[in-house]
Amino acid sequence: MRSNRRLHSLGLLLSDGEPSPRVSGAALTGLRVLAGLMWLYNVVWKNPPDFGRNSDTGLYYFTRAAVDHPVFPPFSWVVEHLVLPNFLIFGWLTLVVETVLAVLLLTGTFVRVAALLGIAQSLAIGLSVAEAPGEWPWSYFMMIGIHVVLLCTWSTRYFAVDALRAQARKGNGPPAAASLLRTWGIVLALLGIAALIASFQTDRWASVGGLVGTEDLEIGLGTYNLAGVIALLVIAACTLAAAIRGSGVLAYAAAALSVLAAVSIYLQSSRTDVWLGGTNTTAAVFLCAAVVSMAAARWLGRSHDLAASASNVTHQGSS
């Protein structure tokens, strides 16, 4: 038995064996989450209202690189004559697209649609900045390649709304919804604890909260002041309570609170008094919580309906 296992493991290392579906599923889930974290961090510097146009920084600077350091001249012409003259529209579109990518990939929702969108966005970024000083063109080839893999494989076996929908088609919607919501509740609670620690690095109620992550490695889950921490922990409590009690109402409440938190950040993103101390990345995290809670709420609510129907049938039968 042990010798067979050793031979199988050796075969996997030498690439002449097929890994188990669980191992493949976990690896692809990790790749999906990694891609989502990349987009999540990178929305932080797409800042309205001018997206860097007035100071020639940020998104405007990198977009103009397509003209100053052309990769593909027809694309540079489009940027120069169509994108830059209408840059504010382009800036908002970029923020929306990359936020959608982060949310869909991290929550495992419509992942193949997100993969197609990621391929297009990665290609556009590469055509803009691949020839700019200090850039590494292969990074954009790899970005495209990652999304091609996500398009052509099953990366939603774990930790995904798509997996919930698949289980629901098999009649396992309520337990799958509770499991997904419980996992996200734990993640949000841990993030809330980390955000609480980070908030003490600055003025706890300041508009610029403490960062959960590291700027040096370009990994971040948002910035939060104490108000943002409270919002995060309340949402985490609602999701966990919804999972434990099987309550669609609590899940919808978590979704509503998450949307309100995200909207408040977007409405104040160009001002200095951001109540929750958040950034575009913080707002995207709240949107992730909203998507998962909304998806799960639908099936958690059905668990009570099914239980009530079964009870009625039993009661009628005994009568």
Explain what this protein looks like in three dimensions:
There is one protein chain. The chain has 319 residues and is mainly alpha-helical. Helices cover 71% and strands 3% of the residues. It has 12 helices and 2 strands; from the N terminus they run αααααααααββααα. It has helices at residues 2-13, 21-42, 58-68, 73-83, 87-107, 111-129, 137-152, 161-169, 173-199, 226-245, 248-268, 280-318, and strands at 210-214, 219-224. A two-stranded antiparallel ribbon has the order 1-2. A hairpin with a 4-residue loop joins β1 (210-214) and β2. α2 crosses α7, α6 (111-129) packs antiparallel against α7 (137-152) and α9 (173-199) packs antiparallel against α12. The chain is globular. 39% of the residues are buried. Residues 303-319 have low confidence and may be disordered.
What would you say about this model in short?
With 319 residues, this protein is mainly alpha-helical. The protein is built from 12 helices and 2 strands; from the N terminus they run αααααααααββααα.
What's the structural blueprint in terms of helices and strands?
Elements: H1 2-13, H2 21-42, H3 58-68, H4 73-83, H5 87-107, H6 111-129, H7 137-152, H8 161-169, H9 173-199, E1 210-214, E2 219-224, H10 226-245, H11 248-268, H12 280-318
Antiparallel strand pairs: 1-2
Helix pairs in contact: 2-5, 2-7, 3-4, 3-6, 5-6, 5-12, 6-7, 8-9, 9-10, 9-12, 10-11, 10-12, 11-12
In total, the number of strands is: 2
**Structural class label:** mainly alpha
Point out poorly predicted stretches.
Answer: 303-319
Series of H and E elements: HHHHHHHHHEEHHH
Q: Measure the end-to-end span.
A: 58 Å
Question: What's the story with the biggest beta sheet?
Answer: 2 strands, antiparallel
- Strand order of the main beta sheet, please? 1-2
Using the CA coordinates, give the radius of gyration: 23 Å
**Estimated helix fraction:** over 70%
Shape from CA axes? globular
Let me know the average pLDDT.
89
Percent strand: under 5%
Number of H- or I-type helical stretches: 12
